[in-house]
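Sharing a chain and its predicted structure for anyone who wants a worked example. Both blocks are below, sequence first, tokens second.
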Amino acid sequence: MERDPEPPLSTRPALESEGLRFLHVTVGSLLAAYGWHIVFSCVLLYLVLLKLSPHLRTLRRRRLDPAAAAPEPDAVVKRQEALAAARLKMQEELNAQVERHKEKLRQLQEEKRRQKIEMWDSMQEGRSYKGNAKKPQEENSPEPSTSSFMKRKGKKPLRGGGYNPLSGEGGGACSWRPGRRGPSSGG
């Protein structure tokens, strides 16, 4: 009883053709479902590689030649000096701004202190301190102020005190009422 270690020739091509058929169906369905996505992805990958290829070449050159990649000491010193000068200039500008701000605060505090003293003096004399604070402003401007013409002495409200635009009252032809809720009654 001899056994053949290989399967008979008639069954072998059927298995190969079945495998090819399976591969054809699988690849065909993949391309049918995702064909355009694959094409666009390949085009996008190609464009990205074109864009990045010069950068990749320079990186390879730097790896191969470390002496060329090292910066010159003079350039490094110049760059650091320029950076230090820029920082110093920015610090001086910041210090000047701080001094101006301190001066403004000092002036404001002095003005508040002066007003408090004037208010205290006017209260000691029995006068109104608010009226006294307005006098120096009026003395500085001899022409009559236009703001007095803008103010009306007898201001009347435009509508009555009980008017509420959200209440729906108040008359007029513009009254809005919401529609009925629920299903339409159309039979």
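Comments welcome. Residues 11-64 form the longest helix (54 residues).
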